[in-house]
Amino acid sequence: MTTTKAEVILGSDNYFHWEFAMRMTLARKGRLEHVEVVKGPAEITDAWLLNDKKALGFIAQGVAVGHHTKIRAATSVIIAWNPLRDFCDRTAMHNRVTMNCRLHELKIEDGVEIPKHLENFDELIVGLQTFGEPLDDARQLVILLSSLPTE
C-alpha cells in the first residue's frame, strides 16, 4: 500500500486552497465525514476510531512543519481540524488585507499570456470570497481592467 502526501501543504496563507484539497482527499479516501460529523461517545465504534486516526494522518501529512505544534496533541481529526481553521480565522483579517493589496497591485507581467493573468486574478478573487469578502462584478471588472496595459 502506498501513501501519498497532500498536493497542497497548509502554510501561512493558503488555508482556503488547503481546506478544499484536504476535503477532496478525505472524500476520495472515504473519510470526509470525520471533519463534518461530530459523533457522541455512544456512537463511536472501533471502526470509526480507526478511520478517524487514518484521516488524522492525512491531515498531518498536509500541514507544514511550522503548524505541527497546533495539531501535535490531537487525538482525533476534529481536534486537529478546528485549531487549524481557528488559527486561519484569526489571521484572516491579515490575509484579507494582504490579498486585497495583491489584487490591487496585480499587473500583467511582460511575456505573460492573458489566460495566465486571468487565472492569477481569479485565484485572488476566490481567496477573498473564501475569507468572506466577495467582490461584485463591477468592482472585479474595474480592478481587472486596471491590471492590464493601456495599449
Please report which band the strand proportion falls in: under 5%, 5-15%, 15-25%, 25-35%, 35-45% or over 45%: under 5%
Distance between the termini: 56 Å
What's the overall geometry? Answer: elongated
Give the number of helices. Answer: 8
Could you tell me the number of beta strands?
0
Quick check: average pLDDT?
A: 86
Low-pLDDT segments, ≥5 res: none
- What is the domain total for the residues? 2
The secondary-structure element order is HHHHHHHH
Helical proportion, percent range:
55-70%
Radius of gyration: 19 Å
Judged by helices, strands and strand pairing, the structural class is mainly alpha
Strand count, sense and barrel status of the largest sheet are: none
Helix-strand layout with pairing:
Elements: H1 15-28, H2 33-36, H3 46-61, H4 68-71, H5 77-90, H6 92-105, H7 114-130, H8 137-147
Write structural notes for this entry:
The chain is mainly alpha-helical and 151 residues long. The protein folds into two domains: 15-89, no CATH class; 92-147, no CATH class. Helix content is 62%, strand content 0%. The chain has eight helices and no strands. It has helices spanning 15-28, 33-36, 46-61, 68-71, 77-90, 92-105, 114-130, 137-147. Helix 6 (92-105) runs antiparallel to helix 7. The longest helix is centred in the C-terminal third of the chain and has 17 residues, at 114-130. The termini are far apart. The model has no long low-confidence stretch (mean pLDDT 86).
Quick overview:
This protein is mostly helical. The protein is built from 8 helices and no strands. The protein folds into 2 domains: 15-89, no CATH class; 92-147, no CATH class.
